[in-house]
Amino acid sequence: MNEMPPPVVAALGHRGWSAVVDQAADEALRRGSVLHLVHAAPADDEAGSRLLRSAAGYAAARLGDRVPVTATVAPMAAVPALAAIGHEAAVVVVGRPRPGSHAHPYARSASVGAACRVGAPVLSVPEDWAAEDRAATVVVGVDEPGRSAGLLATAVGAARDRAAQLVVISTSWRPPGAGSAPLTHVTDPGTAERSASVMWAALSRYDVQPDDPRVSVVVGDERPGEALLAAARDATLLVLGRHTALVPTGSHLGPVARAVLREATCPVLLAAPEPHHWVEPTVSRGHLVTEVPTG
After folding, report:
1. 223 CB contacts (<8 Å, ≥6 apart)?
2. Cystine design at 219: which of 31, 38, 194, 195 (Cβ 3.0–4.6 Å)?
3. Which residues of the chain have pLDDT under 50?
4. Do 142 and 101 share a structural domain?
């Protein structure tokens, strides 16, 4: 008998949960996985139980009998709960406030905290996300192609799963010096061409060639965050890497990823950290969840 793939975990809050469920349901369908809904609240919190029942009913109506749907209350804070559950997930889907909203700081910290501490890939979805008016496009930001194997594999796989265009962004901006002259930067017209060649060589490991009409490589000389946000303005997914975990609290986000999470208008997929650097987070797993009926 074939084993069920790892579950897709959707972390639900009281705002924007339908967008999270929509994205998580699509992921579960693509992977043939169980969709597992989680809400962090005290075990006797009736409002949380009602939310989960509503979300489970919504997911079941959307998926029919194609994907099993389960739901649990995690009687602890959201980030520690997701850090523990995330080790057994294929991907963890979390919501985030739309850019410019005056959401409670906890809503933002929960989304960023999950990205910092969850070992599985994390998909962060704007609470008002709808992709109907956008062409299927996946954008990925790559700093060093030779050290980005997991990130490139995640981006190529996401584009293929969605039958989407893949846009690979690489920038090498340096701060200006006196007279606005770039510091430590030598103006060389061949730099961009060489960088693009290195990127295509890295992509070739995933059967992607320069003549592939659905893949483009863009090499620029600008701030990475600004370049990624501009490229992803009309995209359906933005893929970023994370720093490897060197401390027990998990994988830390760099300044570019934090800025993009704060400002991006599309879902952001943060690839899993490289496993050989992973350090188990210090989270107790005893009595983690309490089952909630979904009927």
Report:
1. 171, 173
2. 195
3. 1, 104-107, 250-251, 275-295
4. no
pLDDT tens figures, 220-250: 888 889 999 999 999 999 999 887 655 555 4
Q: Which pLDDT does position 286 carry in this prediction? A: 38
Are the CB atoms for 250 and 116 separated by under 8 Å? yes
Nearest by Cα to 96 from 82, 114, 116: 114
Angstrom distance (rounded) from CA 261 to CA 98: 10
CB 90 within 8 A of CB 24: no
Instruction: Output the six-digit token pair for 3.
Output: 């084993």
Determine the structural domain holding residue 35 and report its residue range.
Answer: 8-130+280-291
The position carrying tokens 């017209």 is 189
- pLDDT score, position 267: 95
The predicted structure's pLDDT at residue 120: 87
**Contact present, 38 and 11 (Cβ < 8 Å):** yes
**74 and 168 part of one domain:** no
CA distances from 128 to 20, 22, 97 (A): 10, 11, 8
Domain count, the chain: 2
